[in-house]
């Protein structure tokens, strides 16, 4: 579980926020609050077991000295092992307030509870060879382990693994989340992510996904005001039907399946429109009451598919592109999409993303932001860590959705869920759809198939009213 709606900042942004606070209060006071937050979490889990606190050379270590002192004062059996002398003024001050022994990290004996205060946002290179195995051993031998701010060995801004141990029980993020808490290896290394407010105001356009605030339809609502969604069917009708079903269960007022022939199947409330070609679709999409168009699920990649995609791109309507539409766009995605005036959402998985935006470098947040800015669209870059980025630089990250979502058709359901939010006029449609889709998966329990997901959307919606 990741704290919802929490700001996400890079190491440099966190340092800047800290510096602003240090201009009006001593750094030691902030470090006391950081250490106290660590001590509170550790004492919740320690249940009287002996505690080993690891202290590194910087302020992460400084937090560790504070936590150790407070835990000892509260009656816990605490030992400290340091990787070296404290190297910052604040850390030295906190080291000075510790009245017990400080052992060496390399001779430390394992204890049931471990606190990792070796490195935090100041980690700038892979853990030195001597440290990584010692830390890994101490974590493995502990019953409960808590990382201060970050597991030591995790790159703050990318989540890349610089020697971090596996098996940390929980990580207490200080002041704000960092990308490492929500991306990539961080997902496997941080354990339960907790967030401590230590009085450092943080502004960020990047946040973890929060549960959306939704509203029931007004008394005068009708099927058009709740949103007319058109899903374009292609080669594989099942995929488009899944998206249509999700749009209906996800709150759309009226869903139309634009298909070449009557492929049957799907709810009776699903309206069918015979569309044989791109020209037919172009005519149909002149209907200005349409709130969202979905193209891609099961579209296929033949000439008819190309014609349908082109008609949708040229229509001045909110458009959601998924699956085969993204493959057909390929490297020319940005060129095609920049020309559009109506809003557009892309829902690629990593393979589709890499094919469309092969020039994007760096971590997943950076690359998704670049793609959104270049194509002037909102990108929902799916994965174990789903990153949503808008052309205005907003980022939402959803991590740790059910791993059972790794089954065919769940992407079609996301596209339909998104269409319902777009057609319903939700200004945070992408974040809402990501949350609803993940919540429906959690409600569906283990081993669900994509067809089961839409029926959990109403319950997910009810939790947002
Ligand atoms: N977020 C907050 O509100 C607060 C955070 N605090 C804590 O401070 C750390 C960040 O502290 P910092 O001193 O910047 O750095 P670290 O403690 O993470 O790292 C210590 C130093 O270690 C050196 N270093 C970097 N990588 C390695 C490595 N692989 N092996 C050995 N040494 C390494 C580096 O110095 P160099 O000069 O050697 O590069 C680091 O400076 C933050 O995470 C919080 O825990 C404060 O409490 C204030 C409030
Ligand atoms: K740490």
Task: Describe this protein's structure.
The protein has 465 residues and is α/β, with parallel strands linked by helices. It has 2 domains: 11-205, YjeF N-terminal domain (Rossmann fold), CATH 3.40.50; 228-462, 3-Layer(aba) Sandwich (UDP-N-acetylmuramoyl-L-alanine:D-glutamate ligase). The protein contains 17 helices and 17 strands. The longest helix has 20 residues, at 27-46. Residues 60, 116-120, 147-150, 152 line the site of potassium ion (K). Residues 14, 18, 30-31, 34, 56-63, 88, 119-128, 148-149, 174-175, 198, 200 line the site of ligand LZDS7PUF.
Principal-axes shape call: elongated
Distinct ligand kinds? ligand LZDS7PUF, potassium ion
Total number of strands: 17
On the 0 to 100 scale, the average pLDDT is: 96
Report the β-strand fraction as a percent range.
15-25%
Number of helices: 17
Low-confidence blocks of residues: none
Count of domain modules: 2
Which CATH C-level class of the largest domain is it? Alpha Beta
Q: Indicate the radius of gyration in whole angstroms.
A: 25 Å
Major sheet summary line: 10 strands, mixed
Structural class of the secondary structure composition? Answer: alpha/beta
What share of the residues lie within helices?
Answer: 25-40%
- The CATH homologous superfamily of the largest domain corresponds to Ribokinase
In CATH terms, what is the fold-level topology of the largest domain?
UDP-N-acetylmuramoyl-L-alanine:D-glutamate ligase
CATH hierarchy: architecture of the largest domain: 3-Layer(aba) Sandwich
Strand order of the largest sheet: 8-17-16-15-14-13-12-9-10-11
From the N-terminal CA to the C-terminal CA, the straight-line distance is: 22 Å
